[in-house]
């Protein structure tokens, strides 16, 4: 967790950092298509985290029932618990389908694209993405 | 009064024209300035309309009688034509009605979001939806939640996922939903403030983008995250696109790939001067109209009581309570 200290007040930094770490670990596990060990989770997290920190976060999330785990070697491999997430997804989906009124309070990560936007975006990303050099510029 | 009462209306128009320029300013300052501008101009707009309709209303004989002022004296000052006053009154009624509707709707939406955020299982900041369709949003509440679908997490790389979380977190930490609510309320007062609301919505996204860039330590990573997420969502939805939202994502990506926007004082100072002008004119117009009413009351006393009854002040005050030596303390 870098250079966030001065940003906003509120809850204690330790508790906030823990919440942020939990989010990061959950995101890594959900993005993977198989259970991950603590070491693999650590690899998927940006920044320099201690291995033991990741272990702590994993076991806390497991205690909360957010994760399932199975033995792998000397440790565990973790995967997200999907039951509640599907329920939530179903509810969120109906609320998003209901339309504009309620959706208005949600700050969405990305808005919709027009066909022209899509082309512009492809070109912009082509220029910045080291994985795909010189595409369409 | 003759022209000062119109200044807030003119300032509103000028700011509506200038608002899109705020998109290029450093986003945090731009969001705060736009919020301030929207609040002041909406208040100025309502105040101007109220003063205009009051000067018209005050010329109705029944109203003048209740207020104990002279219609003739008020007309002699000729503040505004009756037609303008009627327009002002209609505008005021429309603005207040629309504001009330918007206030109810905004409150309902925010309460709904709070309930929904509280109903999400678990106590983690991040809620993942088990859904292939990529989506991500911040659900304001106490505490707010970051809601992201599995499909969205899978289309992003490790750094980009961190950028996405930081972006949504910035929305929640900065209480951006309150800015949005403010802009929607002010746009309900007058549609002229819609450009401020539109520019505001955009700079909030930019603000969250810049916060995310500071958090992950790279503007390019955030640019890629935004771009990838938008392309993946577009591919998943494939429905007729809304022209109104066009261009926002490419603009954000372009801004992130360019150097960070330099702080610029001139637009902010210009905006502050306009707002100060708006407040000063409204205050001036209000005190003008009070002065007119006061002098119309004095005129009324002079006609109603040509021969002062100095010996019987009590009797005089029974008939015309406002003809006693003046104390300018009555509100308008």
Automatic annotation (TrEMBL), chain A:
Pfam families cross-referenced by the UniProt entry: Penicillinase_R
GO molecular function, one term: DNA binding
SUPFAM superfamilies the UniProt entry points to: Winged helix' DNA-binding domain
InterPro entries found in the cross-reference section: BlaI_family, WH-like_DNA-bd_sf, WH_DNA-bd_sf
Alphabetized UniProt keyword annotations: DNA-binding, Transcription, Transcription regulation
Cited Gene3D superfamilies: Winged helix-like DNA-binding domain superfamily/Winged helix DNA-binding domain
GO biological process: negative regulation of DNA-templated transcription
Family membership: Belongs to the BlaI transcriptional regulatory family.
Protein name as annotated: BlaI/MecI/CopY family transcriptional regulator
Automatic annotation (TrEMBL), chain B:
Comp. bias (Basic residues): 318-332
Residue stretches spanning the membrane: 6-22, 34-60, 80-104
Cofactor, free-text remark: Binds 1 zinc ion per subunit.
Disordered: annotated span: 306-332
Keyword Cell division: no
Residue ranges annotated for the Peptidase M48 domain, each copy included: 116-183
Gene Ontology terms: biological process: proteolysis
Pfam families in the record: Peptidase_M48
Protein name: M56 family metallopeptidase
Organism placement in taxonomy: Bacteria, Bacillati, Actinomycetota, Actinomycetes, Kitasatosporales
